[in-house]
Amino acid sequence: MYEQIKSDIVQEYYKTNFPNDGQRFIAWYLRNIHNIDIVEAKSCITDGAGDKQIDAIYIDDANEIAYIIQGKFYSGETVDAGPLREVLSSWAQIRDLAKLQESANEKLKIKINELSKAIDDSYEICFELITTSALTDSAKNDLEVFRKLLSDNDDISANIIVVDNDTLQFRYSEALNK
Protein backbone atom coordinates (compact mmCIF):
# COMPACT_ATOMS: atom_id res chain seq x y z
CA MET A 1 0.00 0.00 0.00
CA TYR A 2 2.91 2.32 0.76
CA GLU A 3 4.10 2.26 -2.86
CA GLN A 4 0.55 2.86 -4.18
CA ILE A 5 0.07 5.88 -1.94
CA LYS A 6 3.58 7.16 -2.65
CA SER A 7 2.81 7.18 -6.38
CA ASP A 8 -0.61 8.79 -5.83
CA ILE A 9 0.60 11.66 -3.68
CA VAL A 10 2.94 13.00 -6.35
CA GLN A 11 -0.13 14.30 -8.17
CA GLU A 12 -0.28 18.06 -8.55
CA TYR A 13 -3.09 18.52 -5.97
CA TYR A 14 -1.01 16.95 -3.21
CA LYS A 15 2.27 18.60 -4.19
CA THR A 16 0.67 22.04 -4.47
CA ASN A 17 -1.38 21.98 -1.27
CA PHE A 18 0.76 20.05 1.20
CA PRO A 19 4.44 20.63 2.06
CA ASN A 20 5.39 17.06 3.00
CA ASP A 21 4.51 13.41 2.46
CA GLY A 22 2.97 13.11 5.94
CA GLN A 23 0.35 15.75 5.16
CA ARG A 24 -0.11 14.36 1.66
CA PHE A 25 -0.76 10.92 3.16
CA ILE A 26 -3.44 12.31 5.49
CA ALA A 27 -5.04 14.19 2.60
CA TRP A 28 -4.94 11.02 0.46
CA TYR A 29 -6.62 9.10 3.27
CA LEU A 30 -9.35 11.70 3.76
CA ARG A 31 -10.07 11.86 0.04
CA ASN A 32 -9.86 8.16 -0.76
CA ILE A 33 -11.18 6.53 2.39
CA HIS A 34 -13.54 9.14 3.88
CA ASN A 35 -14.49 10.29 0.37
CA ILE A 36 -14.37 14.01 1.02
CA ASP A 37 -13.61 16.64 -1.60
CA ILE A 38 -10.28 18.38 -2.09
CA VAL A 39 -11.30 21.60 -0.33
CA GLU A 40 -12.66 19.84 2.75
CA ALA A 41 -9.64 17.53 2.91
CA LYS A 42 -7.32 20.52 2.99
CA SER A 43 -9.37 22.20 5.72
CA CYS A 44 -9.19 19.08 7.93
CA ILE A 45 -5.38 19.00 8.03
CA THR A 46 -3.96 20.47 11.25
CA ASP A 47 -0.47 18.95 11.02
CA GLY A 48 2.48 21.24 11.64
CA ALA A 49 4.04 23.17 14.48
CA GLY A 50 1.57 23.38 17.37
CA ASP A 51 -0.59 20.50 16.10
CA LYS A 52 -0.63 18.88 19.56
CA GLN A 53 -0.31 15.36 18.10
CA ILE A 54 -3.40 15.87 15.93
CA ASP A 55 -2.75 15.65 12.20
CA ALA A 56 -6.36 16.15 11.13
CA ILE A 57 -9.89 16.48 12.45
CA TYR A 58 -12.76 15.43 10.24
CA ILE A 59 -16.33 15.97 11.44
CA ASP A 60 -18.73 13.57 9.71
CA ASP A 61 -22.07 15.25 10.35
CA ALA A 62 -24.05 12.64 8.42
CA ASN A 63 -22.91 9.85 10.75
CA GLU A 64 -22.33 12.07 13.81
CA ILE A 65 -18.70 11.04 14.22
CA ALA A 66 -15.71 13.28 14.90
CA TYR A 67 -12.49 11.70 13.65
CA ILE A 68 -9.24 12.77 15.26
CA ILE A 69 -6.51 11.48 12.98
CA GLN A 70 -2.85 10.76 13.50
CA GLY A 71 -0.96 9.47 10.47
CA LYS A 72 2.36 7.71 10.05
CA PHE A 73 3.53 7.26 6.48
CA TYR A 74 6.31 4.71 6.90
CA SER A 75 7.99 2.42 4.42
CA GLY A 76 8.97 -0.09 7.10
CA GLU A 77 7.02 -3.24 7.87
CA THR A 78 6.24 -2.38 11.50
CA VAL A 79 5.70 0.61 13.73
CA ASP A 80 6.18 0.67 17.51
CA ALA A 81 3.94 2.19 20.17
CA GLY A 82 5.20 5.77 19.65
CA PRO A 83 2.29 6.78 17.40
CA LEU A 84 -0.20 5.26 19.87
CA ARG A 85 1.31 7.42 22.59
CA GLU A 86 0.75 10.44 20.35
CA VAL A 87 -2.92 9.47 20.03
CA LEU A 88 -3.11 9.05 23.81
CA SER A 89 -1.62 12.52 24.18
CA SER A 90 -4.24 14.01 21.86
CA TRP A 91 -7.00 12.23 23.81
CA ALA A 92 -5.70 13.71 27.07
CA GLN A 93 -5.62 17.16 25.50
CA ILE A 94 -9.13 17.13 24.03
CA ARG A 95 -10.48 16.49 27.50
CA ASP A 96 -9.70 20.19 28.14
CA LEU A 97 -10.51 21.95 24.89
CA ALA A 98 -10.15 25.45 26.36
CA LYS A 99 -6.56 24.75 27.39
CA LEU A 100 -5.82 23.05 24.07
CA GLN A 101 -7.20 26.08 22.22
CA GLU A 102 -4.65 28.32 23.95
CA SER A 103 -1.60 26.50 22.61
CA ALA A 104 -2.82 25.07 19.30
CA ASN A 105 -1.81 26.24 15.85
CA GLU A 106 -4.31 28.32 13.85
CA LYS A 107 -5.65 25.40 11.79
CA LEU A 108 -6.20 23.31 14.90
CA LYS A 109 -7.93 26.20 16.69
CA ILE A 110 -10.58 26.26 13.96
CA LYS A 111 -11.06 22.50 14.16
CA ILE A 112 -11.25 22.62 17.98
CA ASN A 113 -14.28 24.89 17.68
CA GLU A 114 -15.93 22.36 15.36
CA LEU A 115 -14.93 19.48 17.64
CA SER A 116 -16.39 21.27 20.66
CA LYS A 117 -19.74 21.59 18.90
CA ALA A 118 -19.62 17.92 17.88
CA ILE A 119 -18.94 16.90 21.49
CA ASP A 120 -21.80 19.12 22.69
CA ASP A 121 -24.04 17.40 20.12
CA SER A 122 -22.99 13.97 21.49
CA TYR A 123 -21.08 12.89 18.40
CA GLU A 124 -19.01 9.75 18.70
CA ILE A 125 -15.29 10.54 18.99
CA CYS A 126 -13.12 8.22 16.94
CA PHE A 127 -9.35 8.38 17.10
CA GLU A 128 -7.82 6.98 13.95
CA LEU A 129 -4.18 6.03 13.80
CA ILE A 130 -3.42 5.44 10.15
CA THR A 131 -0.19 3.87 9.07
CA THR A 132 1.27 2.05 6.10
CA SER A 133 2.94 -0.40 8.48
CA ALA A 134 1.75 -3.02 10.96
CA LEU A 135 1.91 -2.59 14.73
CA THR A 136 4.57 -4.49 16.63
CA ASP A 137 3.36 -6.98 19.24
CA SER A 138 4.20 -4.58 22.07
CA ALA A 139 2.28 -1.81 20.29
CA LYS A 140 -0.73 -4.15 19.99
CA ASN A 141 -0.57 -4.67 23.75
CA ASP A 142 -0.44 -0.91 24.30
CA LEU A 143 -3.44 -0.55 21.98
CA GLU A 144 -5.51 -2.85 24.19
CA VAL A 145 -4.53 -0.87 27.29
CA PHE A 146 -5.50 2.37 25.51
CA ARG A 147 -8.85 0.91 24.40
CA LYS A 148 -9.62 -0.07 27.99
CA LEU A 149 -8.68 3.40 29.19
CA LEU A 150 -11.06 4.94 26.65
CA SER A 151 -13.92 2.59 27.52
CA ASP A 152 -13.49 3.18 31.27
CA ASN A 153 -13.55 6.97 30.88
CA ASP A 154 -16.88 8.72 31.47
CA ASP A 155 -15.80 12.22 30.37
CA ILE A 156 -15.89 11.68 26.62
CA SER A 157 -17.24 8.71 24.72
CA ALA A 158 -14.42 7.72 22.38
CA ASN A 159 -12.81 4.78 20.63
CA ILE A 160 -9.62 4.15 18.73
CA ILE A 161 -9.20 2.45 15.40
CA VAL A 162 -5.82 1.49 14.04
CA VAL A 163 -5.85 1.54 10.28
CA ASP A 164 -2.71 -0.44 9.55
CA ASN A 165 -1.44 -1.50 6.14
CA ASP A 166 -3.85 -4.43 5.78
CA THR A 167 -6.87 -2.44 6.95
CA LEU A 168 -5.85 0.44 4.71
CA GLN A 169 -5.68 -1.89 1.71
CA PHE A 170 -9.12 -3.31 2.55
CA ARG A 171 -10.71 0.13 3.01
CA TYR A 172 -9.13 1.40 -0.19
CA SER A 173 -10.47 -1.57 -2.18
CA GLU A 174 -13.87 -1.08 -0.59
CA ALA A 175 -13.83 2.63 -1.47
CA LEU A 176 -12.89 1.87 -5.08
CA ASN A 177 -15.84 -0.52 -5.34
CA LYS A 178 -18.23 2.25 -4.26
Mean pLDDT: 92
Ranges where pLDDT stays below 50 over 5 or more residues in a row are none
Question: What is the strand arrangement across the widest sheet?
Answer: 1-2-4-6
Number of strands: 6
- Overall radius of gyration: 15 Å
Rounded to the nearest angstrom, the distance between the terminal CA atoms is 19 Å
Q: How many strands, which pairing sense, and closed or not: the largest β-sheet?
A: 4 strands, mixed
Report the total helices. Answer: 9
Structural classification: alpha/beta
Order of helices and strands: HHHHEEEHHHEEHEH
Strand content: 15-25%
Spatial shape: globular
Helix percent band: 40-55%
Question: Could you walk me through the main structural features you see in this protein, from its secondary elements to its overall organization?
Answer:
The protein is of the alpha/beta class and 178 residues long. A 4-stranded mixed β-sheet has the order 1-2-4-6. Strands 3-5 form a two-stranded parallel sheet. The chain contains 9 helices and 6 strands; from the N terminus they run ααααβββαααββαβα. 54% of the residues lie in helices and 17% in strands.
